[in-house]
Design a protein that fits this description.
24 strands, 9-stranded parallel beta sheet, TIM Barrel, 380 residues, Urease, subunit C, domain 1
C-alpha cells in the first residue's frame, strides 16, 4: 500500500492539510497524517507541500511529442500517453479527425487494441471521433474532401471504442443519426464544426447532443439576432470544452464563460496536435502542413490547427485570468470530464474506492508527480 503525505489535498473544490491519502490501484482511505506512522509496510511518498489533486483528464487531444492519433500505431499512442503524463494527465481520449474512412477505422482499431493492452503512461479511455460528419463551412483545420454524409457503420462496429463524437446537427440525416446513436450505444454526442442556427442547435440538443466541442471555435458565433451554436451552448445545460491557450479564446472571456456556464459546465481540453512538447517548426495534421511558432499552430492559410497546449498550463491560464482558486479550477479537468463520459463513479475525485488517479503539482501547476491507477507514471 502507498501513501501520499505532506501535501494539500483537493477534495471537491476545497483544500485539506495534514491529511494523507492511502492507495493501491484504488483509493483506500484518507487519514490524519500522524496516523501513517502506525501503519506497517507502507510506501510513503512525500508531496513536498504541493497540491494533491484528482488526476487530469483530456477528452480532446490529437497528438503529442511528434506523434498523432491518426498515425494509427501503438508507438504513437504509447508515446502520447507517456508524454502527457508529464502534464498531469492520467487518462485521455485519443482524437481522430476527418480523413479517409479507412484511416479512421485503422486508428480506431489501434485504439481498441492498446486500450485493452494498456499503456505505460496516461490511460486510454476510448476515442473521440471529431469528424468526418461535420459542416464544410466550419471545417477548420480538417480537409473538406474528407467530410462525408452520416454513416452508421462506424457506430455499429466501434461503439465499444468511441466514447465521444463531434457532429454538426444541422446537416441532412443528422437527427436520424443522433437517434440511432442514442438507441445503439453510450457514445456521447458533441456539437462542433457546425453552422447550425440557434434553433437547429437547440433541436440537436433536444435529440440527444449534450456536449460542445471547443466552444467559439469552428461554429456559428453569438450574434444578437442569431445566437447560433454559441448562444445555444451558453443558454442550455450542455457541457462545453474550451481551449484555454489564450489564442483560441481571448483570455478576458474566460470569466464571462465561467459565469455563464458555472464551474460545472466547462471542460478544459488541449486539442493538442503532434507538435505538443516539441520545438517550433513544421509538423503535420490530417495530411496538412502545420507551422508552429510562439505557441501557435497554424496551417499555411493561417487557420488555427489545434494547439500545442499542455493541460496543466490551461488550468494556470484560467487561474491567472479569473478570480477562481486552483482547487475550484481543478474540477474542469477532473470530475467534469468524468461526468461527460459517465465515469464519475470511478474517476474524477479522490473519493475512497475510485481509481487512484492522482496528480501532484505546485502553485504554478508545474507537475511533480502523476499517478495512474496507483502506479507512478511520471515524477521529477
Amino acid at each position: 500500500m502507498k501513501c501520499l503525505y505532506n501535501g494539500k489535498l483537493i477534495i471537491k473544490g476545497r483544500l485539506y492539510e495534514k491529511k494523507a491519502i492511502l492507495f493501491d490501484e484504488k483509493i483506500i482511505d484518507i487519514i490524519n497524517e500522524e496516523e501513517i506512522h502506525h501503519i506497517s509496510n507502507l510506501e510513503k511518498i512525500d508531496a513536498r507541500g504541493c497540491y494533491i489533486s484528482p488526476g487530469f483528464m483530456d477528452i480532446h487531444i490529437h497528438g503529442y511529442d511528434g506523434f498523432d492519433t491518426m498515425d494509427a500505431t501503438e508507438e504513437a499512442l504509447e508515446t502520447i500517453s507517456r508524454g502527457i503524463a508529464g502534464n498531469g494527465v492520467t487518462s485521455f481520449l485519443p482524437t481522430t479527425m476527418s480523413m479517409p474512412k479507412e484511416n479512421i477505422i485503422q486508428a480506431l482499431n489501434t485504439i481498441r487494441k492498446i486500450r485493452e493492452k494498456g499503456t505505460s503512461g496516461a490511460e486510454i479511455l476510448g476515442a473521440h471521433v471529431e469528424g468526418p460528419f461535420i459542416n464544410k463551412k466550419f471545417h477548420g483545420a480538417q480537409k473538406k474532401e474528407y467530410i462525408i454524409p452520416f454513416d452508421c457503420d462506424i457506430i455499429n462496429d466501434y461503439k465499444d471504442v468511441i466514447s465521444l463524437m463531434t457532429i454538426a446537427p444541422e446537416l441532412e440525416g443528422a437527427l436520424d443519426f443522433i437517434k440511432e446513436v442514442k438507441r445503439k450505444s453510450n457514445i456521447v454526442l458533441s456539437m462542433g464544426h457546425s453552422a447550425a442556427t440557434f434553433e437547429e442547435a437547440l433541436e440537436g440538443i433536444a435529440y440527444g447532443i449534450c456536449h460542445v466541442t471547443h466552444l467559439f471555435n469552428a461554429m456559428s458565433g453569438l450574434h444578437h439576432r442569431n445566437p447560433g451554436v454559441v448562444g445555444a451552448a451558453l443558454t442550455t445545460n450542455v457541457s462545453c470544452e474550451i481551449i484555454a491557450d489564450e489564442i483560441h479564446i481571448h483570455p478576458d472571456l474566460f470569466s464571462v464563460i465561467l459565469k455563464a456556464k458555472g464551474l460545472d459546465g466547462i471542460v478544459l481540453v488541449t486539442d493538442c496536435m503532434s507538435a505538443g512538447g516539441k520545438e517550433d517548426g513544421v509538423y503535420e495534421l490530417g495530411g496538412q502542413k502545420v507551422f508552429v511558432k510562439d505557441k501557435e499552430a497554424r496551417l499555411e492559410d493561417n487557420t488555427l490547427a489545434g494547439s500545442v497546449l499542455k493541460l496543466n498550463h490551461a488550468i494556470y491560464n484560467l487561474y491567472k485570468r479569473t478570480n477562481y482558486s486552483i482547487p475550484q479550477l481543478v474540477q474542469l479537468v477532473s470530475i467534469n470530464p468524468a461526468r461527460v463520459l459517465g465515469l464519475e463513479s470511478v474517476k474524477g475525485t479522490l473519493d475512497i474506492g475510485k481509481d487512484a488517479d492522482i496528480t501532484v503539482f505546485d502553485e504554478k501547476i508545474n507537475i511533480l508527480m502523476t499517478i495512474g491507477k496507483g502506479k507512478i507514471i511520471y515524477a521529477i
